[in-house]
Amino acid sequence: QARLTESGGGTVQSGGSLRLSCIASGLTYSRGSMGWFRQVPGKEREGVAAISKDGNTNYAESVKGRFTISRDNAEMAVFLQMNSLKPDDTAMYYCAANPFGHWAYLSRTQYADWGQGTQVTVSS
Description:
The chain is an all-beta fold. It has strands at about 5, 10-15, 20-25, 35-40, 45-50, 55-60, 65-70, 75-80, 90-100, 115, 120-124. Helices cover about 0% and strands about 50% of the residues. It is globular.
């Protein structure tokens, strides 16, 4: 059974930083695509950052230059370093995986495996 477990969320002041982690188990995620998404109540889940099996990355315009996605294939983990956080970054953040994907997809339709989410709150 595939499983993704996120951690690292919390409350931080505007301008601060957080590092999210996602540990994968149950499938060989080291060969696929992984991504981070976020969702606020009443809105659709949106892609924030994604990384391909080869390490290519893709970011939403709103986070470019502030967020960095990385992966550790040996540990089957993906990370999201978030700097210069803004109140608009407040959301539930989800890790997603596509074990058979090739690219750094930002579309949620490309992912079938999801974590339970970790809350990020940025106060002004």
